[in-house]
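$ fold --in a.seq
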Amino acid sequence: MSDYNAALVGWDLRRTAILTIDLQNDFLHVDGAYGRAAQGCDAIAALPERIAPLVNELRNRGGSYISAQFTLVPGRDGEPLIAPHLKALRPFLTKGDFTPGSFGHSLVDALSPADYTIEKIAYSALYQTRLEYIMRAAGIDNLIVGGIVTNGGVASTLRDAHLRNIHTVMLTDGCAAFDDVVHDATVLSLGTVTHRMNCSDTLAWIEAQPVVAPS
């Protein structure tokens, strides 16, 4: 699915960032929290390599890359502060998982390093984070969004951005869920709050824009 003709008209790529949601080792790496619990998914595992070319090309045209990373804040005893619904949903999460500064919390190698990193404690990258501050300070008006999961962090971030009048594009094959049916339904439902483009069309559009010479 692609809204290619309508999506990026008038965008200044120097004021645009790719924002990925939760593409971290604890979600994707075999030695991460989800990998150890055999919670992998091929659709999710494919995302970093699919998004990386877009990040490279956008940077060549003066744009930025922001990584929003799920965070479990350690309590006084080191055990993570986990919301009850998440503990029930993911009982395997334990001490050290998604801890800031850890291997598991880090962005996957294929996309590392980001220009800016956002720690988030809930689904949306805009809920109680510094994302809006960074966007203002860095002169970023537009977000191209991908990551995991489509019906969780991605959808919540896109809806929050819409409420804040932030222009967005959803990478329809640059995000994924553990269930393809849920992914497809979510992409369809978000058509009222974001433009939708696949990675191939988005990359072609970026490549058609002028390269920005280093200052």
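$ fold --in b.seq
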Amino acid sequence: MDKWLSLLDGFQYNLVLFFGTIAAAVPLGLLICFCSMSKFKPLSYLSKVFVWIIRGTPLMLQLFVVLYVPGLVFNMPMKSRLTASFVAFIINYAAYFSEIYRGGIESIPKGQYEAGQVLGLTKTQVFMKIVLFQVIRRIVPPMGNEIITLVKDTSLARIIGVAEIIMSAERFSKAGVIWPLFSTGLFFLAMCGVLTLIFGALEKKMNYYKN
């Protein structure tokens, strides 16, 4: 029983990382998306380069960079390894979310914007009243995939010393008790199962907004 409670305590860090990352990365990704699509070329270029770098390097490396570079380069060391994990996860997933947003927005035919403007709507009104729900319906599946991946990626925080569930289980394996390490999969499976049901129901509801 004590071992299960220890695993549950470790999984709390996974959940904190998961929900904190979602809360910050979803709006930040939208901001990066708008910057990438901006007609102001320097801003668009910088945003695209940023996304390219983040998507092109491993999250594990980004965790080390966030943890050590501020102290080594700017003499401002990270005070908390959990904070470093938050920063790395938020930046990483915001970059991925921004590309999902951009793909969803650009998938809408330009004729719909033009038709709305012919009817006297502003670009903002066209986006909010005509385009938005179509974009949401199109991005739900890829967003769901990324969010489910995030559940599993939270385990990477252990490499910089965050005592999440797998690190908690590894402590038992060093003492010759191996089953807690494999039991961690049950926690991830349960969380991913719940999210799969939620996104499945959301996709079904979004089918109302068909083109």
